[in-house]
Amino acid sequence: MYRKTNETEVTVEIGNKTQINTGIGFYDHMLELFAFRSGLKLEIRASGDIEVDSHHTIEDVGITLGLAVSEMLGDKKGIARYGSARIPMDECLAQVDLDISGRSYLVFNADVRDEMMEEFFRAVAFNAGITLHINLLYGKNEHHKCEAIFKAFGCALGQAVKVTGGDVPSTKGVL
């Protein structure tokens, strides 16, 4: 998946290896944790106007990642659809629940200083068609809070995309 704007250029491929370079070291680390926990091999390359700030790059990586996940899932036949994970990270505990429903929604109950966390997850959820609930139950260390959230998101998404049958997982017949 490719996205180019006047502010960013982003490529996300789901394939054979994980290699991430957004130019923002902290988010590279978080995305590597997500990729590992989800079981998705992600190649992410991004360049953007980080001399201004990280906002455009982080949001556009989220948009492009969401679109790549949506493309990967196609008609969603056979996927488990739902995923849920509670992940401790030292003094923190994060819970993520999601539904690959085609109905985009984000609930973000996490007291984190990094305002881009919510923007990133909103971009992923709305472009992948995911109902996503993120709850940070408690924690003090900012790095640990973010790490617990990204790991929980990876585990939950890994469960939801797992092929468990042959039909679209909906009584409606479509997602």
Task: From the structure above, extract its key features.
four-stranded mixed β-sheet, globular, alpha/beta, 8 strands, 175 residues
- Using DSSP, what is the number of strands? 8
Radius of gyration: 15 Å
Strand content: 25-35%
Largest beta-sheet characterization:
4 strands, mixed
Helix content: 25-40%
Shape estimate: globular
Distance between the termini: 21 Å
Element order, helices and strands?
EEEHEHEEEHEH
Which class do the helix and strand fractions yield? alpha/beta
**In terms of per-residue confidence, which ranges show pLDDT below 50 for 5 or more consecutive residues?**
none
Largest sheet, spatial ordering of strands: 1-2-4-3
How many helix segments?
4
Please explain how this structure is put together.
The longest helix is centred in the last third of the chain and has 20 residues, at 142-161. 38% of the residues lie in helices and 28% in strands. The model has no long low-confidence stretch (mean pLDDT 97). The strands form 2 sheets. It has a 4-stranded mixed sheet, covered by helices on one side. Strands 5-6-8-7 form a 4-stranded mixed sheet, covered by helices on one side. It has 175 residues and is α/β, with parallel strands linked by helices. The chain has helices spanning 25-38, 55-73, 116-128, 142-161; strands at residues 2-4, 8-14, 19-21, 42-48, 82-89, 92-99, 105-109, 131-138.
Structure at a glance:
This protein has about 180 residues and is of the alpha/beta class. The chain contains four helices and eight strands.
